Amino acid sequence: QVQLKESGGGLVQAGGSLRLSCAVSGRTVSTLVLGWFRQVPGKEREFVAGIYDGADTVYAEPVKGRFAIALDAAKNTVYLQMHSLKPEDTAVYYCAAKWRDNSDFPWWGQGTQVTVSS
Q1: Residue 14 and residue 101: Cα distance in Å, rounded?
Q2: Largest Cα–Cα distance of the chain, in whole Å?
Q3: 77-82 and 91-98 as β-strands: parallel, antiparallel, unpaired?
Q4: Fewer CB within 10 Å, N side or C side of the chain?
Q5: Residue (of 81, 90, 101, 75) closest to 5 by Cα position
């Protein structure tokens, strides 16, 4: 069983930066595929960024060049560094984990709110 706990959300002005953290317990982060997702009320949850094999990353088009996902193996934590934030980045951000052979993410955190004011 894998447990995930996000932190670091908050209110920021457009153009600002935030770093989200996701503390992982139950498995070593380097053995998992980890992802960040976000959801706005009334809309489907969408993929933001993912990291696998410890260092390979993938990003959704709207965040490319602005967001960066990274692991800290010593802290067993995955981060999402967000720069040049826009009002449309406002959402609840979720951390998720799966084994590489899984098609879906079975483990999710509780989410952290990010609000970007214009």
Answers
A1: 38
A2: 41
A3: unpaired
A4: N
A5: 75
